[in-house]
Design brief:
The complex is a heterodimer of chains A (322) and B (276). In chain A, 79% of the residues lie in helices and 0% in strands. Chain A is mainly α and 322 residues long. Classes of the chains: A mainly alpha (322), B mainly alpha (276).
Chain lengths: 322, 276
């Protein structure tokens, strides 16, 4: 049964990617004018022969269904088109930036999950107490402030006034002489990581708190309590694991939220990842690149989903995936 | 009781914001796009929040910006909530193949990241406040379908629906008179949270330079201040007002949402009785 469920989830992921590809394909075709006019506007007017050659070269004169299958094949084969702005294959541009995004994405995800779950489970466990209502209000505030505002605030306070961290970029000017120093990069990465973490904590906190509150009313908690176990023991051994289960399925949604946050945060910190790439692609209206970014974001979420599915048995021993 | 007070206070604040948005021509000292003074002026008597790089009065622009910013959030929320309520009800009430199609569709589409898609789509369709709100509503309504569906599923089994059906009421009548009133509060909570989310998203789009160029919204104000040097030159009166306004409005909506949700969901209320 478990394997069947995993199979379904995989099928959904594949469908989702197919739909993403279909969207990018149809948007390319909905684009006003043809592709040549977008990238070389004057050539098409001066030389009609070039248009014909161009269409033949890129298969634009073939029937739509054939173009569609061709496009699908190309995307799956790793050919995602050429960026207009960079003049490079989209995959090459993205994969270089992906590394830098992951450098802040992974620490921020882990940190926000740890902090959000710790505070959330405690808050849910002591639901109704003063501490809980104060943390709850703080979290509402954290969540209500948009990500770009956190980033600007952190730059101003920690970067500019206190001068603890660099204002942006990923390496200092000394790199020109000494080469890239991992410590220097880490120093630059701290503020983006903090802002991305702050942005993602409230969502995780809120889910964990709700999950904990519903676990709280279960019979086995009452049973454990009647046995005379201490509160901390029940929290650790009975409540926490069970409350974690519903969290796994929604973590992928949090990823989507973080991708959105990273666009703003990387832009403000000039961190050379996918977020900043998105901003620049938007500014120069580099559509193939934007579509590549969109496909890559879909892939990231699919992978996060799969990771959540496969870590299910780690959290819940009743579930076996063989 | 504290919850009710929060709710009333935030509703009053929201009402004031709406009043400001409606009456801004009366309150604003200048027309928002009029060049009313020296560029980059500091706050003074004439220009309460100074002027921007074109010499436009920031205070007037802030007041006028309330309109587009709120309209984006509210329109997007209206669109997404009506879509998700309708689809959620159909899916849960009829079951069978409509349910299969809608639920599987939601399952699949949930994996597609909405925001990057919104960015790509916003470039294709010329950014206009209605298209942006519509796109946000379309992409953001998926989660709501699930919430409404699970609620309606339990309602369909309820005695009063069974009774109404036994009396020979039509499906349409049952949905409108029995199901809809019971999920209305849930839909309102969804609406408030969606409004908050879409307002932040709309301001974010403005910040990324994808706003509707025909209107003034806070996102575009932040974008202008940020990219034309307001941030680098430390001109806080240019950058802070629109940012603070966004935070304030978003806080108000969040407070309304959470206090309504608490009222609605008895499970989230104090459960400390057990541990005494």
């Amino acid at each position: 049964m478990r394997i069947g469920y995993l199979g379904w989830r995989m099928a959904y992921s594949i469908f989702a990617f197919l739909i993403s590809m279909t969207i990018t394909f149809s948007l390319l075709h909905l684009m006003p004018g043809d592709y040549l006019h977008a990238i070389l506007p004057y050539l098409a007017e001066k030389n009609p022969q070039a248009t014909v050659l161009f269409q033949e070269q890129f298969g634009l004169n073939k029937p739509l269904i054939e173009q569609y299958t061709l496009y699908m094949g190309n995307v799956l084969g790793g050919n995602w088109g050429y960026s207009i702005h960079y003049g490079l294959p989209v995959v090459a541009v993205i994969s270089e930036k992906l590394y830098w995004t992951m450098l802040i994405f992974i620490p921020a995800t882990l940190l926000s999950i740890l902090i959000g779950m710790a505070i959330g489970s405690y808050s849910g466990w002591t639901c109704g107490s003063n501490l809980d209502s104060i943390t709850f209000k703080i979290m509402i505030f954290l969540g209500a402030v948009p990500s770009y505002w956190w980033a600007l605030f952190l730059i101003l306070v920690l970067g500019y006034y206190l001068n603890l961290f660099p204002l942006g970029g990923y390496v200092g000017i000394e790199t020109l002489e000494r080469g890239v120093d991992p410590l220097d990069v880490a120093h630059h990465a701290i503020l983006p990581i903090i802002s991305l973490t702050i942005v993602s904590i409230p969502g995780i906190y809120y889910l964990m708190r709700n999950s904990m509150i519903s676990t709280f009313g279960e019979d086995y908690i009452l049973n454990a309590r009647s046995k005379g176990f201490s509160e901390t023991y029940i929290l650790r051994h009975h409540a926490l694991r069970n409350a974690l289960l519903p969290m796994l399925t929604v973590l992928a949604m949090e990823m989507a939220h973080m991708i959105m946050g990273s666009v703003f945060i990387e832009t403000i910190f000039s961190w050379p990842g996918m977020g900043l790439l998105t901003y620049e692609a938007l500014r120069v209206r580099d559509i193939p690149l934007l579509q590549g970014i969109f496909l890559m974001d879909t892939l990231i979420i699919i992978i996060a989903n799969a990771a959540a599915d496969f870590s299910y048995p780690l959290v819940d021993p009743r579930v076996k995936v063989v | 009781m504290a919850r009710i007070r929060t709710l009333i206070a935030s509703l009053v604040l929201l009402g004031m914001c709406i009043l400001l948005a409606v009456s801004c021509p009366l309150l604003a000292p200048f027309s928002p796009s009029e060049i009313s003074g020296r560029p980059l002026q500091e706050p003074c008597k004439e220009h309460l929040m100074g002027t921007n790089d074109l010499g436009q009065d920031i205070f007037s622009r802030l007041l006028y910006g309330t309109r587009a910013t709120m309209a984006l959030g509210l329109l997007g929320a209206l669109f997404s909530v009506s879509l998700s309520t309708a689809l959620g009800m159909i899916s849960a009430y009829y079951g069978g193949w409509p349910d299969e199609v809608i639920s599987r569709g939601v399952d699949i589409l949930m994996t597609v990241p909405g925001f990057p898609l919104l960015l790509v789509a916003a470039i294709f369709f010329s950014p206009n406040i209605f298209t942006i709100a519509g796109l946000m509503g379309l992409l953001g309504g998926l989660q709501g379908i699930r919430i409404i569906r699970s609620q309606v599923l339990s309602l369909v089994e309820a005695e009063f629906v069974l009774g109404a059906r036994a009396l020979g009421s039509s499906d349409h009548y049952i949905i409108v008179r029995h199901i809809l009133p019971n999920i209305l509060t849930l839909a309102v909570v969804n609406f408030v949270f969606a409004a908050q989310r879409f307002m932040l998203m709309g301001v974010g789009l403005g910040f990324l330079g994808l706003g509707d160029p025909a209107v003034i919204d806070w996102g575009q104000m932040i974008n202008r201040a940020y990219s034309n040097g307001g941030f680098a030159m430390g001109m806080w009166w240019w950058l802070i007002p629109p940012g603070l306004a966004v935070v304030l409005l978003s806080m108000i909506l969040a407070m309304i949402g959470y206090s309504l949700e608490d009222e609605l969901n008895p499970r989230l209320r104090k459960q400390k009785i057990l541990s005494i």
